[in-house]
Design a protein that fits this description.
heterodimer, A: alpha+beta, Sulfite Oxidase, Chain A, domain 2, 5-stranded mixed beta sheet, 5-stranded antiparallel beta sheet, 10 strands, 22% strand, elongated, B: mainly alpha, 2 domains, two-stranded antiparallel ribbon, 2 strands, globular
């Protein structure tokens, strides 16, 4: 009787060993399958086709979809009551950083004195407003941390007309029922599209002053947009025209792979 | 739990890589003490080898997709750890700091005896809890940078937009440091330990114990 038990013992041990081996085999198999799947998934994403150029462009198709979905999510937390942090004037930079001159390059002819803001109320009906007219409206100043997609930020002091004041004064409230605002430089070389809530935010201004002085050309004279709830790329310099629409207006950097919303 | 660990590895890799695509656009951080710059992030050869330059938009697009995976995975991990009760194995105890010091001395071959331990020793408890806190920190500082106006209170909590960005960057350096130590430890702990992280083997490994009469396995110690 003792021999069978002796034979049984190593057999039992073997089964445990086999069990261990089997479990190991399965786990490693599953692990390998998932690792392979992850790798394939990554390759699919990395090599996925670029979107066709429209209002947006330059990004991989799935990534653009993700950006747009993420925009919808974060639009939910947007509120006029969420204000950008403001600073005392003394903290504003004396030398305000200049990052770009697209749409207002030095070799381009531009007559600042003859300039008038073109507000397209509907196709064919354009409201023309001079800088002097704008300066008659109440002035709003803001000292805030200007943020660039590149990563830098600088406390800057701007002055001008609050966009919502401008809308109210010129009786354009009906137009703000639309979803987007488009702004372009006079030469149409730089252009931005903005969602209505961000433009009507109380800290969005049409600026004609920086550090209490009229805008110099490199900062977008005579009039530029300061939209504190967006990255710098949306803060158009030298505004030529403003229009309203229910579809996304074209946007210079969104065409080059950046998020259309670019909200902060 | 090990699932979350293995999901996190590729996701965090993508986050760090895309983060560097973003950082390149304005690489101003350096370590400067008393006016002397010791180190600038990063040298040109480093950028060029990894093909980092001029890919800001791409980096942002990847970063803002994988942030979801990183956050969800982390959240699942934390919830699982809480509800399974496994946090008891992970959170440092009162003696963990003393124990961690002994583990450190042992690992550096200064001290012969390793302190007795259960699943995780004091040093592991501290490191693994710290890395989770760092993960939470990355999500919070990340949100503070991503939507500093909508989440102004987070930005305030992180010392403002500018400082939040530095913290976010420093945490990433922390991950890289953790990763290096972590991988060295895994190599030292040996194949059996690595295998268990894939198979969840610890349970099975303990069952033959009474037959073989072997000392319980520990991560760092007990070889001698």
């Amino acid at each position: 009787m003792s021999t069978p038990t002796k034979n049984k013992k190593p057999k039992k041990e073997l089964t445990t060993g086999q069990k261990i081996n089997r479990r190991n085999f399965i786990s490693f198999g599953v692990f390998a399958v998932f690792a392979g799947g992850a790798y394939e998934g990554w390759r699919w994403l990395y090599k996925s086709r670029e979107e066709t150029l429209g209002v947006t462009g330059g990004a991989r198709k799935p990534l653009r979809r993700a950006l747009n979905k993420t925009e919808l999510f974060f639009r939910r937390v947007f509120s006029d009551n969420h204000l950008v942090k403001t600073y005392p004037k003394s903290m504003a930079a004396k030398r305000v950083r200049v990052n770009s001159d697209i749409g207002m390059e030095a070799n381009k002819k531009f007559d600042s004195a003859a300039w008038k803001l073109q507000v397209v109320k509907k196709p064919g009906e354009v409201l023309q407003i001079s800088l002097d007219d704008l300066k008659k409206l109440p002035k709003t100043e803001i000292v805030f941390d200007f943020k660039c997609v590149e990563g830098w930020d600088q406390v800057q002091h701007w002055g001008g007309v609050k966009f919502s004041d401008f809308i109210a004064h010129y009786g354009l409230s009906d137009l703000t029922k639309m979803q987007y605002v488009g702004m372009e430089t006079p030469d149409k070389g730089y252009y931005v599209g903005l969602d209505m809530p961000s433009v009507m935010h109380p800290q969005t201004i049409l600026a004609y002053e920086v550090n209490d002085k009229p805008l110099p050309p490199e900062h977008g004279a005579p009039l530029r947009l300061i939209v504190a709830v967006k990255y710098g790329i949306k803060n158009l310099k030298r505004i030529g025209s403003i229009s309203f629409s229910n579809t996304r207006p074209r946007d210079y950097w969104a065409e080059q792979g950046y998020d259309y919303y670019s909200g902060l | 739990m090990r699932w979350a660990h293995w999901v996190n590895f590729p996701v965090l890799t993508v986050m760090i890589w895309s983060g560097m695509l973003i950082y390149w656009a304005n690489d101003e951080y350096s370590i400067t003490l008393f006016g002397h710059t010791f180190f600038r992030f990063f040298p040109d050869w480093f950028y060029n080898t990894l093909k980092i330059p001029h890919r800001l938009a791409e980096g942002m697009a990847f970063h803002f997709l994988f942030m979801w995976f990183f956050t969800l995975n982390g959240l699942l991990y934390i919830l699982y750890t809480i509800f399974s009760g496994e946090w008891r194995e992970l959170v440092p105890k009162r003696n963990s700091f003393k124990e961690a010091w002994q583990v450190l001395l042992h690992d550096l071959h200064i001290r012969k005896m390793a302190p007795p331990q259960k699943k995780y020793n004091g040093a592991q408890r501290i490191a693994y809890t710290a890395i989770i806190l760092m993960g939470i920190g990355s999500v919070i500082t990340g949100l503070a940078i991503y939507k500093p106006v909508q989440f102004y209170y987070l930005a305030w909590l992180c010392g403002g937009y500018h400082f939040a960005r530095i913290l976010h960057f420093a945490l990433t350096l922390g991950y890289v440091f953790f990763f290096v130590i972590h991988v060295i430890q895994v190599f030292l702990a040996g194949w059996g330990n690595f295998r268990s992280v894939i198979s969840g083997f610890e349970v099975v490994n303990e069952s033959p114990k009474p037959v073989i009469q072997k000392a319980p396995e520990h991560e760092h110690a007990d070889e001698k």
